[in-house]
Amino acid sequence: MLIKSRYSLVELLLWTRWETLVFLLLGGGVTALHHLAGFNFLQLPWAPIAIIGTAVAFIIGFQNNAAYGRIWEARKIWGGIVNVSRSFGFKVNEMITAEHAPGEVGAEELRREKRVLIERHVAWLTALRYAMRQPKPWEMFENHRTNREWSAKVCIPERRIPLLEELAPLLSEEERAVVGSRGNASTTLLFLQSKHLRELKERGLVWEFSFLELENVLHELVALQGKSERIKNFPYPRQYATLSHFFVWLFLLLLPFAAIPEFANVATRIAEAWPAVAPHFVWAAVPFCTMVSWVFHTMERIGRVGENPFEGSANDVPISTIARGIEIDLRQQFAFEPIPEQIPALFDVQM
Fold it and tell me: The whole model's pTM is what?
């Protein structure tokens, strides 16, 4: 849904503040037990933990690469929808003519037919973006507290207005009834487009070659819709997503038990040179463990929220903005009123 222009460290810290608090409490608790309560047995060798950290880093890297690949593929698909929509617009404008009509056809009638085709195409864009916003069982963005806070601050259009209400200005009452009775609204609208083009061909308003060209554009739209649906309906494999989450937390829970003894050993070595610092140096393990844990967990979480590029996070593809931009372009080229305003960006984020 959304593409953010920039991230600041403050925003990332706010986004991960609850996990950061957990890391602070974990590091501080283990340090207190080790240093104050004398539980010196609470320690693990550093080498195995470092090996686990290296493996976790590879897993997170793989997850982030896969998540970014899904986002980038979705962006390319919707970029293709932009291009094909513009192509459809100028082909409709140039190929719907009275040149081969058996009788006299007025300019107003041609304009009316073009408007029906263009507005039905806008309806297809609307139905497709609504389908992409439908929640799936494997989408977990809203499960996290700070993600829900984000969703409450922004206004995702597809969550505020029902689909049929959004389609009301674009389709006839009969077409809305047909779309509402079918499971896949966007596919139904492409069928209606094809049927309409055939009727225009039979009336002589579309030459046979032009009809084939327009049908080819519909075929491209079908292909792009299928690609978008493939990303939406096929999740990032759960075994990779779940195991990477578990492995990250395993490493984060074990980290203090290996890092704190190392800081205690350093305190012993500097005791003679820095007698005032050495007794308290072990507490430096708390910010160290917190920073390392924050980096690993934040990278894993960024990959997790990027797995589903239409779910509603700040890093998703801004399909609402893209669809509205196409509608504005088409209406301006044909001078079809009303021309809507672009969906405003909130917090430097496009919807």
Answer: 0.88
